[in-house]
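>> received
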Amino acid sequence: MLIAQIGINEIIKDGATTVQSIAEGWDKQWVDLLQNNTNDNLYGALTNLGVFFAVGTLLIFMTQWLKDTINNDYSRPISGLIWPFVVVLFLTNTGNGTVLSNLTLGVRNFLNGINQQVVESADINQTYQQAINMSVAEDVVGAFLRPCQSLNGEQQRQCFTKATEKIDTLWQEYRNLYGNKPWINRLENQVNQITLGTGVLSEQAFNSLIGSSVQVTIKNFLISLQSAFQNLIEATMLLIAALGPLAVGGSLLPVAGKPVFAWLTGFFSLGIAKISFNIIAILTAAVIVNGPGQNSNTNPDLMWFIIFLGILAPILSLITAAAGGFAVFNAISNTASWVKERV
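>> returned
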């Protein structure tokens, strides 16, 4: 009954939630953390901690540098002098962010721009939104019609009439968004067969369209789960961005794997996860919309799509991101080794 109490406009808006709207919801948090008054906010405190780490690791760095110089190993000391300058440059806080914070925000905006281009180019016909709304439409119709199932005679007819008035608004809104699609006509015809039919409806005929309240609850949970995953990616990227000063501050340690390389790898890996999830979701949605969604006589089982979207797609995108992150880390490490040999 909860869905039935929500306005049609809100239902359409929720069903048409895009990747861009999720990213835009986090924009202010990124700017507030990385650019606004960084002398006093969380990023400023972490920058100070990063400076503290840098001072401590600088002592270790200078000890190793002097040792190499005494041993007449001049190639490593000369190339190593770059890192202290990089650390000082990146961690200088002006109150409006550091070089590191501005670069981090720029990289995040760049990744989001690529992500949005991928979504727009792969989802020209709004297949992802249509696939989600195909499932949402069934839930809404079920919420409006389910109370009529237990009624008989004139009471049931009046209940159907009121429900049809609300459902007709839903069809009109969908046609305004996507045009006169076969899946909209199919659902409308099925509703009309129920509301305009005579006699008492059988349980099987009724549930073939509206399903059960348990099924609706599971579908809503899985749809919320995929939204939670996308927000989790945004929150994790913001967390990694905030830890950037610590990674830079610890990069003066005389070790082969610089913490800043691991930090960059984690940041880019999450960007790969975000893009991978959206590609997987759009391609899977296209299978439904361009397949059974084009057949007015086919009643597709959308539960597999919702399960895939809420559980399997996040897992697959994280596996892809892990593989991509490993490749990025190797590329950065090899590039650093190449530069070190030639500087």
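>> Confidence is low (pLDDT under 50) at residues 1-8, 10-16, 198-202.
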